[in-house]
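Note to self: keep these together.
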Amino acid sequence: MEPTNGFFEITQQGDTIILTPQTDMGELNADRINSGMKHVLALLNNSSVKNIVLDFHKSGYYGSTALGFFFRLWRTISVRKGRMAFCNLSENGKDVLKVMKLETLWDICTSREDALQTVRK
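Structure:
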């Protein structure tokens, strides 16, 4: 698969897609995030994808628009009994998920390989 509007690189491994933001997901990129989100949600609605890995090795942070996107992804896959994991998060990114107690919904992993193993359990 190719990057959507230059914002997300999307790859698929079996019933799992890996989303890699190509830049920070802060509010200055809200329009690009929303555009990419529409593409990703359409892709999910037209596939049997069950799990999602968000790989942040190219992105240092995310804002509230991105958090809303994460919730929409989670709602979409949770009805499929799927899982979602984050990997390569910055310390700030980890802290945001922990403070909001979102690590109880989504796994935080150190590497893409760990995240892929986690969602496939």
